[in-house]
């Protein structure tokens, strides 16, 4: 988990939004909604979880290797760009 309180707050807010999306998906399934909207909701949840994973991983990289602006930051910046490109 990120050590920075701002990162932690942002990540927890993202988890709460994902929870809301999952609850909406559950309601749609229980009510027998059409497959199209359900598949769209599933895709939205998947995208949100991928975004959460990217954010947690980026926070971990910054915590372990330092910010991209500091000493050795060019490599950190490259790694963060690589993570973003594969997880988004």
Automatic annotation (TrEMBL):
GO molecular function: DNA binding; metal ion binding
Highest taxon in the source lineage: Bacteria
Pfam families assigned: Trns_repr_metal
GO biological process: negative regulation of DNA-templated transcription
Gene3D superfamilies, per the entry: Metal-sensitive repressor, helix protomer
Family: Belongs to the FrmR/RcnR family.
Protein name: Metal/formaldehyde-sensitive transcriptional repressor
């Amino acid at each position: 988990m990120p050590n920075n309180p701002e990162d932690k707050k942002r990540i927890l807010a993202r988890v709460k939004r994902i929870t809301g999306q999952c609850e909406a998906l559950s309601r749609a399934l229980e009510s027998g909604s059409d497959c199209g909207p359900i598949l769209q909701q599933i895709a939205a949840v998947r995208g949100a979880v991928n975004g959460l994973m990217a954010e947690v991983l980026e926070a971990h990289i910054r915590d372990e290797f330092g910010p991209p602006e500091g000493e050795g930051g060019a490599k950190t910046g490259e790694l963060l760009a690589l993570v973003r490109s594969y997880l988004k």
